[in-house]
Amino acid sequence: METGLNATERTVRSVWAEVLQCETSAIAVDMDIMDVGGSVELIQIILELNEAFDSELPLDVLLDRTTVRSMAAVFDNPPR
């Protein structure tokens, strides 16, 4: 298990594991979704994260953020 993750990173990582149907421990925070999934999984993850964080961030804000860490950063500091 990776240590030092904040709550947002843990939530993003959990959603990834659910969508990819794997153990959370298999998801590294700097892993790129495009290396383990693809665009369909990326869109599903984004939709589920918006629900998990009760957010409405548009797809284009998240599409180029393809790691747990970069996605979590957007939810921690959403664009205005």
Description:
The protein is 56% helix and 0% strand. With 80 residues, the protein is an all-alpha fold. It has one domain (7-75): ACP-like (Non-ribosomal Peptide Synthetase Peptidyl Carrier Protein, Chain A, Orthogonal Bundle), CATH 1.10.1200. α1 crosses α3. The longest helix has 14 residues, at 7-20. The model has no long low-confidence stretch (mean pLDDT 90).
The name CATH uses for the topology is Non-ribosomal Peptide Synthetase Peptidyl Carrier Protein, Chain A
Distance between the termini: 33 Å
The CATH superfamily label reads ACP-like
Q: Overall 3D geometry?
A: globular
| Low-confidence sequence ranges | none
pLDDT averaged residue by residue? 90
CATH C-level class is Mainly Alpha
The CATH architecture can be named as Orthogonal Bundle
SS content category: mainly alpha
Number of strands: 0
Radius of gyration: 11 Å
Strand count, sense and barrel status of the largest sheet are: none
Which sequence of SSEs, written as H and E, runs from N to C? HHHHH
Number of helices: 5
**Number of structural domains:** 1
Q: Helix content range of the residues, please?
A: 55-70%
| Percent strand | under 5%
Summarize, please.
With about 80 residues, the protein is mainly alpha-helical.
Keywords summarizing the entry:
Phosphopantetheine attachment site, Non-ribosomal Peptide Synthetase Peptidyl Carrier Protein, Chain A, mainly alpha, 80 residues, ACP-like_sf, PP-bd_ACP, 56% helix
